[in-house]
Amino acid sequence: MVKSITIEEFLQLTERLPVLDARAPKEYAVGHLPAATSFPIFSDEERAKVGTAYKQQGHDPAVLIGLDLFGPKMSKFVKQATKLAPGKELLVHCWRGGMRSGAMAWLLDFSGFNVYLLQGGYKAYRQYLHQQFEAPRKLLTLSGFTGSGKTDLLPYLQQQHQQVIDLEGLASHKGSAFGSIGMHPQPSTEHFENLLGTELLKQDSAKPTWLEDESITIGRVQIPKPFFDRMQESPAIVLHVPLPLRVKKLAEEYCQTDKALLEAAILKIKKRLGGLATKEALEAIQTGDMEKMVEIALTYYDKAYSHELAKKQHVLPLELQSINPEENAAKVLAFAKQHHLI
């Protein structure tokens, strides 16, 4: 049986059924449903061949070429699908819900599977996510200078039954010139949006969601503009942590880092630091004086953050005398309740 279903129905079923993405590997690599398994009906080269035939010869010749490519692989597809879905029930989509997913759905239906086909394909999914980014929702941002431990607070807030989204975790980047150190490779902006949209769909829109304050770009990925605008409009609790504590925290984090990575990070902000400060920071790295290197870097980052903070519409400062994330999370919650934010 093949049943065509809406994106809302499709996403509900992803919680219990395998998702097969019939698009080409390159398409999947750029962005995909987080729950999906790449299950390409054509390789990248085969897709290009069919596409060229369609443009040069028309629909019917392209279909015949596609069938010639698809036919020899049908047995393999059924065997692979059986491994992924031993219960013989699964979800299938392609780019627009067209011929690729239709052909795969037909084959699997013929082989005894119950197949749910996404109406409008991956394109419908992307449109649905953008609706989530534009939808009104209650957001609370944790702001503060670099080294204030904002991200560290999120899991402790979550333990207290608060809704949180770790943007830096989704982006696999900490947002500064040092942000890629110790992180996995970043996703594309498209896939970052997919990850963010997936998290938003888990949230109760009647309750606030906590996020760390970010620039619109995190490394090389970009926060969707409508969602970023809502972040800018939301109340921002600004953590004021004494500079010596921030320096100590960051120095401890970077003390085991490859010196070449630290030097590369400093060189990324060379123009902002100036020649003398850059030279001193590089020397501090070579001598292992991480606190001095951090102090120099923070002269730039603190100024940059002050500039961004000035754009906020609703700022609430909170003085903290510790970098203990569990203690600070409790203080943040008490502060938020005091100001009727939660």
UniProtKB/TrEMBL annotation:
Residues 13-134 form the Rhodanese domain. GO terms for biological process: tRNA wobble uridine modification. Pfam families: AAA_SelU, Rhodanese. Signal peptide: none annotated. It comes from Pontibacter flavimaris. GO terms for molecular function: tRNA 2-selenouridine synthase activity. Keywords: Selenium. The keyword Ribonucleoprotein does not apply. The keyword Transferase does not apply. This is tRNA 2-selenouridine(34) synthase MnmH.
